[in-house]
């Protein structure tokens, strides 16, 4: 992705050289550097704010980390045909973004303190399955103590 802008500038450079209309070296070089820099920032921001990590102890959505032990319940999926939203569908989302990133699926979580949040991932079903297993495992451990 980052190399696409400079590659297009190279194509324009070759076209200008072939056509003999004079090559705009400085303009094309500055454009290539500017495009590469801007796309690099976008890629870095996407990796930081739209990534998900789930371990047996931690869920990280974007830049926010939540201990799996804090999750009391994984709430049921929302009915896409229901007229009313589920209460968790208007809850705050995890991460520093104001909502769920595009092409991500929201999953409602009830925390041990009674609050509700929305986790999210590209593979919402996979994250839901993994979280349900981890939360069920935490409940089983709590019962053994």
UniProtKB/TrEMBL annotation:
The keyword Transmembrane applies. Keywords: Membrane, Transmembrane, Transmembrane helix. The chain crosses the membrane at residues 27-46. The keyword Transmembrane helix applies. This is DUF3093 domain-containing protein. It comes from Rhodococcus daqingensis.
């Amino acid at each position: 992705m980052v190399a696409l802008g400079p590659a297009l500038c190279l194509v324009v450079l070759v076209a200008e050289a072939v056509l003999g209309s004079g090559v705009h070296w400085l303009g094309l070089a500055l454009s290539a550097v500017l495009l590469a820099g801007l796309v690099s920032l976008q890629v870095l921001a996407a990796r930081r704010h739209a990534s998900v990590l789930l371990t047996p102890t931690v869920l990280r959505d974007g830049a926010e980390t939540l201990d799996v032990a804090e999750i009391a319940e994984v709430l049921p999926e929302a009915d896409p045909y229901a007229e009313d939203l589920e209460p968790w569908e208007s809850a705050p989302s995890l991460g520093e973004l104001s909502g769920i990133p595009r092409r991500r699926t929201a999953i409602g979580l009830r925390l041990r303190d009674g609050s509700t949040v929305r986790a999210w991932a590209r593979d919402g079903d996979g994250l839901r399955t993994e979280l349900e297993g981890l939360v069920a495992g935490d409940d089983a451990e709590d019962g053994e103590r």
